[in-house]
Amino acid sequence: MHEYLIGIDGGGTRCRARLTTNEGRVIGQGLSGPANIQLGLDYSWRNISEAIDRALDQAGLDRHLFPRCRLGLGLAGVVTEADRQQVAAKAAAFHSVKVATDAHTACLGAFGGRDGAIFIGGTGSVGYAWLSGESHQVGGWGFTLGDEGSGATLGRQALRYALMARDGLIEGTALTERVNRFFTSAGIDLQTWLATARPTDFGTFAPDVMELAERGDPWALDILKINVGWLETYVRRLTRLGAPRVCLLGGVAPRYMPYLSEEALSLIADAQGDALDGALLMCTGLSEGQLPGGLDIPQLVN
């Protein structure tokens, strides 16, 4: 007999958990580190478990609750059916579990389970639409091949310009000076930093791009213009697929709003809920998830 629901939103920067009663009353929430499974399933699951434990602790409960709880997991890095099965196997203690991408649960939450599309621009980026019970993913190929409009991409481009300015290939600006100072003031060796840098590390410079673009810094504005162009391309593609509107989600994407064209602005909607709401909707069975390519994500009862 299930009496509780747990929704998980696991991204490349953090993992959030929300614990509710079967009637939907929130009784606990938890926060932990990254849960993108491409960072390693064991590593991600430790952070998922930590977020759940914190939600349980807030509610005055513990893991003995698991057999009475349905779990909905929206995780970055879920690409294949094998990914889903491996994640689901980690959740054998729960009454039931459903696994989907964090884009799917974010889209469900944004439109209350109804048709719509989202562009998530946080550390990484992806476009996603849920239309007539089918999923459509656009982009989401990761930092090496994609992540247009993401914080990591903004930061990487800022670092490129900083190095070009250091080498005398372009004129320096406040942006290039600030990024170069990050390394020189702390005595950080760039090659050593690059050897272990993750997308979140590159994303460190994204707030500098946003701030200095507002002040008119030419290189910051150039970076912003390129990424706003990509965002508008994603929005047009998602609406051509049939999405009535697109929600901009994540820590970066909504900050593009002042720079969007009138055409793009007319296609943007405010989100009704968040990815945790979507994960909870999914684990109730109200809306079934699908992986790109049409692979169903069935309910797995343990």
From TrEMBL:
Q: Which organism is it from?
A: Asticcacaulis currens
Name of the featured protein:
BadF/BadG/BcrA/BcrD ATPase family protein
Identify the domain of life: Bacteria
**Occurrences of domain ATPase BadF/BadG/BcrA/BcrD type (ranges):** 6-255
